[in-house]
Amino acid sequence: MLVFSACAPGAGNQAPTPGAAAPTSPSPVPVASVLPGSSSSADPQPAVDAALRDASLHLSVALADLKVDQVQPRQWGDSSLGCPKPGLMYSQIVTPGFLILISGAGKQLEYHSDSRGQVVLCQER
Q: How many CB atoms within 10 Å of residue 47?
C-alpha cells in the first residue's frame, strides 16, 4: 500500500475555503480520428485552410475575398478523393474526408480532402 502526504502538516485535513475554486485537472486533448464506416469525423479546419490557400492562389485573390460556402464530411471510395486523374493508380481504400465549396472572383471551386488536410481541386464552376 502506498501513502502520499502533502508537504505541509495537516494539508490533507483542511476543509476548502468557502468561495475558493476547487483545483481542476487539465482537460484531455481531444483526439479526432475517422475510421471507414465510422460516424465520427475529424476536424475539417486544416482541410478548409488548405483549400482557402489554394483557392487564393488559383483565383489570384486575397483570402479575405473568399467565402466558404459548404463543408460536408464524405467517405471517398479510394485515395483519389473522388477526383481521379487519367493514368494514375490509387489505393482502393475508403478515405474519409470533406467536400469543401469555396467561392470568390465570380467562381465556385469544389475541393475534396482527406481527414488530414490534403486537398484536391476537383471542379471549377
A: 24
